[in-house]
Amino acid sequence: MGIPLRRESTETDRLLALSDGVIAIAITLLVLELTVPEVPPGTPTAAVPTLVFEQWHEFVGYVLSFLVIGSYWVNHRRLFVHIERHDRGVVWLNLVFLLVLAFVPFASSMFATYPNQFGVMFLAGALALTGLCLTLLWSYASRQRLLKEGLASRTVQIQAARFLASPFVFVLSIGVAAFDPALGILTWLLLVPINVALQSRLADSLEAPIDRSEDRPDG
């Protein structure tokens, strides 16, 4: 039984195939939530652009959710680039991540329908929970020593900070939206400079020579 289990722990193709499929479907469902405005009888067609512009919240929800799901896919891909093998915990945490991510299209639709305090907080909560699941997956893999040998602890920490950045910003936006929904939406823009800064630090840590003393236990 040892050899089959060892082979199973290093076989990640089906796990990644399932993840890519669920993420692709979730992204596709986002555009299906966009609706064509109905022109009331007797209204001139010249009013169509105005009706479209009145749906600004639907487009904001679509673009934001698409970009965030896309970034989560990129982070998920990078996560499994560093994971050398997996166990049952990784499999189930990955399923929980997909469970929450597949809920994002509904949260985006809720925001498009109710672009008020509740809609903003609902979408931000769903996106925050998705990012938190990805962070837990990375933390579990690093604690269980499932990552590739030679990965510096500083790189692991920076990657964890990057995974945690999105849920942090979305949780912050929930607090802000409780007072001002529009300002809560603007808070999401913080993701851009934060991710750029962390990506720069991550690139530097990957290019830097590995200090083996980082991985030695104290004492």
TrEMBL record:
Record Pfam families: TMEM175
Subcellular location(s) per record: Membrane
Catalysed reactions listed for this entry: K(+)(in) = K(+)(out)
GO molecular function: potassium channel activity; proton channel activity
Transmembrane segments: 15-36, 56-74, 95-114, 120-140, 160-179
A GO CC annotation given for this chain: membrane
Top-level taxon of origin: Archaea
Membrane topology type: Multi-pass membrane protein
Keyword Membrane recorded: yes
Keywords, ordered alphabetically: Ion channel, Ion transport, Membrane, Potassium, Potassium channel, Potassium transport, Transmembrane, Transmembrane helix, Transport
Family from the record: Belongs to the TMEM175 family.
Protein name (database record): Uncharacterized membrane protein
Naturally occurring in which organism (per UniProt): Halogeometricum rufum
